[in-house]
């Protein structure tokens, strides 16, 4: 019962002990309490119960009872880090037990071998136990043995064997009432899905397992370890680190399993390094190494040593000692049959290259490169990265580009299996090195056209295909509604000066729920992505120019596309440009309020400095036609209309040349109607909306209580033009929860992704609606980038806080231009020119940009 209904089992065991039981029955009761404490509570208390159970079994004179308790005690001792004592307990248990009981003892020793990372011994004990358990028709323990064997297969990279065992075990679990074991089986299937490269299925199954554990009231430390691994692979390292640290703190609080703590420390180190915190990664990995060594868990210790070396390299350390350490770890992992062995060889090769040890590097990289043809996507990408580095060391530019192309193809196919735009964006981080190597070669070849093609190859890939439309999942829909209600209540409470901690906690919980549900979505078939065509771009530009800014080794390179060719100009330092853009954004925020006029010349001077850094020698060649700017993610906050060479131009911005081209080729809906929305709380009350309603006689106008999210979404779907006057909030910590405030609460990016087709043109007249978060290799997440893949060809939005009153004349002039048949970029250019010349109005005009091509 302890794995069917743990709480009830504990209560019954305590009742038995209060009733003055015989030694035999008391032994069983203490064993149950020991198991409960071992897996869900304090290990010190568990060991006291289990030793008492062992002594009572000996007094009862039952060899099988004693063998059974010795096995349970052995597991607890190993989890407490007392490996030698635990294995000795198993030796006695195997010797004392017979038949069916001995098979159960062997199964539990196999489990301990797995915990210790001794996989051959684990498989051997399962091999000996399974026939006896099957012959005894012991479905529960047979299912446990199959589940364990599958888990060992996963550790060795044998995914197909694991899936077969999990399937067989699940058929048996369906015939039992073992709810905790069933939850464990779902968790294990989640791990198998992850090893197969199916991250959405892995997240869905792990969430399902967590729900099952929650109903039983049991902790989920092992689940946390597995979810950390999946989250890290999905590029969600900060979440993985938070989960690992929370689980470690809880284990410390209750005195839980030392083995689980070591595994969580290793997971935390992985996550910290992936999140860019090398020093935290080093600290966590060093403690994990010590714990694993003390627990005699060589397999785990070796993996922790690999992570420690990775973290030290990430912190900037390079030495011959690190090369030797990485090589030794790679050799040991290979002897274990660990799938991580190629990663260790790649690491040794990287360090050797950095030191100029080309012969050593070639030896290690050649070993790592063998993984490029088999295994899950991360292993193949590791192999292609090693092959690209080999080719670069050998001076073969062609070899570098071929390896980069093949590696990015693997990641392309993997990325398209992800339905959530958030996961697609983060997944690109795995290809950052390959993309950078290819750009490096493209630059060295002196071909701007090739540099453009390679820069586009791994830029704004999230926009290359629409995200999977969220299913009509009642749980997701109710979660979005509840989130909106709680967020609205929290906002109202803040405005009234009332405390909101409880509401904020509930809001964060609902955010996690919505985020989890959307991540469960699978994507399109492999190979469904978009391929960029330079010739088509040049043809579509006509007399216009497209300026793509490419960063190679910290320097900006300007690729000027137009007149049938691509030219390159050298720009300045990326770091300088980012710092300058930050100063400009701060100044624009101040200029949004009257009284800051003296700063206007400073802002204009900063615009000139930005132009020197970002456009440099390309300025005389911009021509007189429209200009499209394609900045890297780090420069998305630049107010491009502030740059002197762009101030009087028809100017638009795009996350990539490919996304501009797709927007340019997007056809407007045949009967696209205008939709005007006015949200609550605007200083001007959205004063432009009533006047625009008079201009557009057929427009749908939503205001006051009608401007509720479900109604707004229904009207936006398939609209030709939408104007939303509503307060905007940008969430840098969670960009897909960036929002526009409606009458019933926030309209978030996740809501927009439910549209079958977003409006062909959309104007967001509120603050900060164009702000984006840079994630992955060079991806941007926010309201604008959510709309572009869903059918929107053009967006006007602001990247900074703006003055509400100054927005009204800008918006009226913008719509006047649209009514005259102009594009969004043309209308915005003319609207800026029509504004008064004071600082507030000028800053407002610069803050807005046209995105896309409509």
Automatic annotation (TrEMBL):
Write down what this protein is called.
Answer: CHAT domain-containing protein
Which InterPro entries is this protein grouped with?
Answer: CHAT_dom (IPR024983), TPR-like_helical_dom_sf (IPR011990), TPR_rpt (IPR019734)
Q: Where is the CHAT domain?
A: 605-852
| Organism listed in the record | Streptomyces rubradiris (Streptomyces achromogenes subsp. rubradiris)
List the Pfam families hit by this protein, alphabetically.
CHAT
Superkingdom classification of source = Bacteria
């Amino acid at each position: 019962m302890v794995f069917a209904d743990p709480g009830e089992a504990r209560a019954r065991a305590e009742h038995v002990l209060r009733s003055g039981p015989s030694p035999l029955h008391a032994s069983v009761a203490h064993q149950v309490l020991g198991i409960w404490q071992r897996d869900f509570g304090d290990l010190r208390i568990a060991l006291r119960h289990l030793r008492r159970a062992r002594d009572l079994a000996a007094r009862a004179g039952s060899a099988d009872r004693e063998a059974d308790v010795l096995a349970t005690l052995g597991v607890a001792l190993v989890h407490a880090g007392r490996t030698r004592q635990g294995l000795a307990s198993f030796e006695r248990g195997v010797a004392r037990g017979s038949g069916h009981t001995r098979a159960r003892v062997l199964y539990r020793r196999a489990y301990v071998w797995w915990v210790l990372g001794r996989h051959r011994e684990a498989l051997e004990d399962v091999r000996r136990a399974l026939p006896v358990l099957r012959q005894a028709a012991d479905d529960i323990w047979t299912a446990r043995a199959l589940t364990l064997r599958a888990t060992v297969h996963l550790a060795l990279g044998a995914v197909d064997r694991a899936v077969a065992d999990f399937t067989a075990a699940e058929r048996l679990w369906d015939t039992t009432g073992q709810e905790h074991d069933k939850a464990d089986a779902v968790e294990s299937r989640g791990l198998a899905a992850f090893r197969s490269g199916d991250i959405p299925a892995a997240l869905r199954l792990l969430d399902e397992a967590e729900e099952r554990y929650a109903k039983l009231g049991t902790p989920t430390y092992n689940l946390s370890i597995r979810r950390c691994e999946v989250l890290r692979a999905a590029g969600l390292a900060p979440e993985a680190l938070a989960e690992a640290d929370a689980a470690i703190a809880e284990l410390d609080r209750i005195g839980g399993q030392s083995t689980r703590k070591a595994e969580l420390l290793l997971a935390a180190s992985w996550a910290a390094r992936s999140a860019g915190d090398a020093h935290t990664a080093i600290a966590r990995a060093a403690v994990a190494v010590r714990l694993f060594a003390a627990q005699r868990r060589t397999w785990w210790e070796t993996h922790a040593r690999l992570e420690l070396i990775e973290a030290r390299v990430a912190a900037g350390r390079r030495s011959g000692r690190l090369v030797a350490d990485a090589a030794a770890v790679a050799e040991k992992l290979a002897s274990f049959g660990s799938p991580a062995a190629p990663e260790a060889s790649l690491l040794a090769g990287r360090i050797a290259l950095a030191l100029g040890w080309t012969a050593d590097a070639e030896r290690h990289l050649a070993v790592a490169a063998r993984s490029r043809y088999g295994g899950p996507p991360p292993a193949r990408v590791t192999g292609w990265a090693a092959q690209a580095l080999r080719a670069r060391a050998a001076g073969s530019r062609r070899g570098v580009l071929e390896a980069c192309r093949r590696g990015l193809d693997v990641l392309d196919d993997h990325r398209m299996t992800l339905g959530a735009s958030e996961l697609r964006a983060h997944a690109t981080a795995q290809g950052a090195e390959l993309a950078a190597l290819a750009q490096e070669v493209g630059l060295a070849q002196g071909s701007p056209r090739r540099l453009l093609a390679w820069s586009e190859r791994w830029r704004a890939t999230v926009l290359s295909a629409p995200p999977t439309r969220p299913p009509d999942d009642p749980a997701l829909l109710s979660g979005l509604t509840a989130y909106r209600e709680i967020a609205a209540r929290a906002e109202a409470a803040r405005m009234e000066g009332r405390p909101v901690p409880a509401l904020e906690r509930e809001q964060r919980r609902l955010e996690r729920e919505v985020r989890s549900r959307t991540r469960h979505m699978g994507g399109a078939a492999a190979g469904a992505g978009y391929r960029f065509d330079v010739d088509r771009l040049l043809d579509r530009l006509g007399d216009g120019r497209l300026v793509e800014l490419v960063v190679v080794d910290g320097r900006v390179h300007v690729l000027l596309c137009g007149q049938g060719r691509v030219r390159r100009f050298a720009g300045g330092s990326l770091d300088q440009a980012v710092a300058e853009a930050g100063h400009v954004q701060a100044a624009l925020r101040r200029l949004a309020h009257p009284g800051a006029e003296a700063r206007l010349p400073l802002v204009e001077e900063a615009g000139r400095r930005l132009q020197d850094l970002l456009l440099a020698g390309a300025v005389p060649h911009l021509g007189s036609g429209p200009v499209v700017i394609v900045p890297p993610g780090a420069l998305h906050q630049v107010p491009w209309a502030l740059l002197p060479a762009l101030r009087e131009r028809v100017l638009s911005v795009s996350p990539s040349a490919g996304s501009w081209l797709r927007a340019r080729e997007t056809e407007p809906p045949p009967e696209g109607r205008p939709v005007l929305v006015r949200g609550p709380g605007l200083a001007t009350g959205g004063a432009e909306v009533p006047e625009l309603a008079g201009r557009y006689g057929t427009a749908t106008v939503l205001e006051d209580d009608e401007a509720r999210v479900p109604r707004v979404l229904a009207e936006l779907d398939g609209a030709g033009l939408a104007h939303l006057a509503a307060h905007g909030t940008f969430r840098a910590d969670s960009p897909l929860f960036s929002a526009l405030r409606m009458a019933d609460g926030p309209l978030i990016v996740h809501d927009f992704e439910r549209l079958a087709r977003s409006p062909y043109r959309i104007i967001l007249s509120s603050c900060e609606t164009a702000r984006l978060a840079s994630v992955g290799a060079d991806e941007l997440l926010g309201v604008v980038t959510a709309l572009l893949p869903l059918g929107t060809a053009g967006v006007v939005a602001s990247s900074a806080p703006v003055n509400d009153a100054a927005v009204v004349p800008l918006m009226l002039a913008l719509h006047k231009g649209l009514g005259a048949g102009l594009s969004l970029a043309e209308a915005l250019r003319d609207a800026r020119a029509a504004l008064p010349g004071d600082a507030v109005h000028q800053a407002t005009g610069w803050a807005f940009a046209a995105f896309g091509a409509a």
